[in-house]
Specification:
single chain, 241 residues, alpha/beta, 9 strands, globular, binds zinc ion
Length: 241
Amino acid sequence: MMARNFGAVLTHRLAELYSKLLPIPCFLCGEFSFQDALCKACTEELPWLGAHCRQCAMPLNVSGICGQCLQHPPPQQASLALFRYETPINHCIAAFKFHQQLVFTHLFAKLLVDKIEQRQQPLPEVIIPIPLHSSRLRQRGYNQSAQLADNLAKRLGVTADKYSLIRQRNTSPQAGLSRKQRKRNLKQAFAVIKPLPYKRVALIDDVYTTGHTVAEASRCLQQNGVEEVEVWTIARAIRHY
Ligand SMILES: [Zn+2]
Ligand SMILES: [Zn+2]
């Protein structure tokens, strides 16, 4: 069993418990409420993603498939995201990811479930988070996507599988690399540790940037028996950013 950062794990367990018992300040405006990481007003003002491409979640004027996906379809069959990756949601995600603001787990999971249920499509059999490499997991103490996967699975009544898909190479962080380097960086990054009994999977990641990470993970799942992959993310980065 790998040595985990127990300090970090304990801190976020306590934060989680605290948020259930006592009012917490909104991460953005400081207003105290029993609600969530964000108050209602700040949640409403987030950069919500409107109509978007069904396959890659790129914003569109009307829902459909974008030109890029028509020309070069990504391996996943569908994608959805809650927000455009802009201020202030980028700060919220950074806090969720690096600063143990795990109180965001509930808010993001709740909002994702609302969106998922609006689609009136059958649910996937299983939810799989984009894994962190074991050395990065040790450093950070938790994987925010795995937290989200657990919470979503509970709300939707499906399974979360956090162990079958692994990151076999410790890739450099994608930020700061060119498009070409990002693609190369992720080659063979993922593997499965056992044959997968699933046909329909939802992959969870925090931000959909170029799509290389989720594409590489989707390919790995599809090479191992999965037929349909959908990608659920909190935010979609827009190319001109
Ligand atoms: Zn607020
Ligand atoms: Zn698209």
